[in-house]
Amino acid sequence: MEMRLIDTHAHVDLEHYDGDREEVVERAKNAEIGFINMGLDIDSSKKSVNLAETNEGVYAGVGFHPHEASSFGSPDPKRLRKLSRSDSVVAIGEIGLDYYRDNSPRKDQREAFRTQLDLACELGLPVSVHNRSSTEDLLRLLKERDEVPRGVSHSFFGDYELGLEFLDLGFYLGLSGPLTFGGEKELKEAVKRFPLDRLVLETDCPFLTPVPHRGERNEPSYVSHVTEEVAKIKGISEEEVSERTTENAVRLFDINGE
Ligand code: NI
User: Fold this and answer.
1) Which of 87, 134, 177, 240 has the fewest Cβ atoms within 10 Å of its own Cβ atom?
2) Domain coverage including residue 219
3) How far is the CA of 154 from the centre of ligand 1 (A)?
């Protein structure tokens, strides 16, 4: 499948799509938009692999979201390792820390994050990292490692200096729907200065729906609205944003790479 754009972080396995999942996947395909479906726990990771194995242009991430970190239990990544044997798996994700909701004890979140970073290094896979109100610990856990996996700060939110911290670690920055919202001046100023060759686009669907669909359910085909916004902010063409961010995603996730 010819890919014009890649949504590097989606959750099309979720129940939000139970009524029309095939149509959602079809709409992305017709628009030449590939996507990477990220797992949130074992069940969702399995579904991601399944979705990716049965649809062209769909790839999978396997991992435990920090909300599910407690169910990760003792750090035993055996089941993730087994799932990752599928050729469709291109990432360990979604992993990270979330001190905003604190759905799992912070100690468990850190333990699960470390274990999955180790797994990513072992398997040579990039990570898709969630960070909410946990920047300090997250950066510390990355910086203290001997080996930092390739990765992306998923749905990056922050100023230029924070972006630089991730770029210095070799990470890419994932831009999503909130960039299209009215405010977010600081984020837009930062995006103007970030190098285009370190940006990837994403939806985090069904969440974070971009304008003009804000308030509706999000889906991979809406990633084009993030493209428009990045083009506007950087003062370049949408074609250039599409081409370059797609190249970045292919490089980062080694898509069709073998
Ligand atoms: Ni997500």
Assistant:
1) 87
2) 5-257
3) 8
DSSP label of 205: B
Prediction pTM value = 0.96
Residues whose beta carbons lie less than 5 angstroms from ion ligand 1:
94, 204
Which residues are CB-contacts of 218 (< 8 A; sequence separation ≥ 6)?
177, 203, 204, 205, 206, 207, 208, 209, 210
Query: How remote is the CA of residue 202 from the centroid of ligand 1, in Å?
Result: 9
- CATH number for the domain spanning 137: value is 3.20.20.140
Place of tokens 């509706």: 216
Q: How far is the CA of 10 from the centre of ligand 1 (A)?
A: 6
Whole-number Å distance, alpha carbon 238 to ligand 1 midpoint, is 25
Q: Tell me how crowded residue 234 is: count the other CB atoms within 10 A of its CB.
A: 16
Instruction: Kindly give the confidence (pLDDT) of every residue in the chain, 258 residues in length, as a single tens digit, with 9 standing for 90 and above.
Output: 889 999 999 999 999 999 999 999 999 999 999 999 999 999 999 999 999 999 999 999 999 998 877 765 544 689 999 999 999 999 999 999 999 988 889 999 999 999 999 999 999 999 999 999 999 999 999 999 999 999 999 999 999 999 999 999 999 999 999 999 988 899 999 999 999 999 999 999 999 999 999 999 999 999 999 999 999 999 999 999 999 999 999 999 999 743
40 C-alpha to ligand 1 centroid (Å): 8
204 Cα: distance to centroid of ligand 1 (angstroms): 5
CA 34 to ligand 1 center in whole angstroms: 16
Give 252 Cα–ligand 1 centroid separation in angstroms: 18
**Opening angle at CA 39, ends 33 and 42, nearest 5:** 150
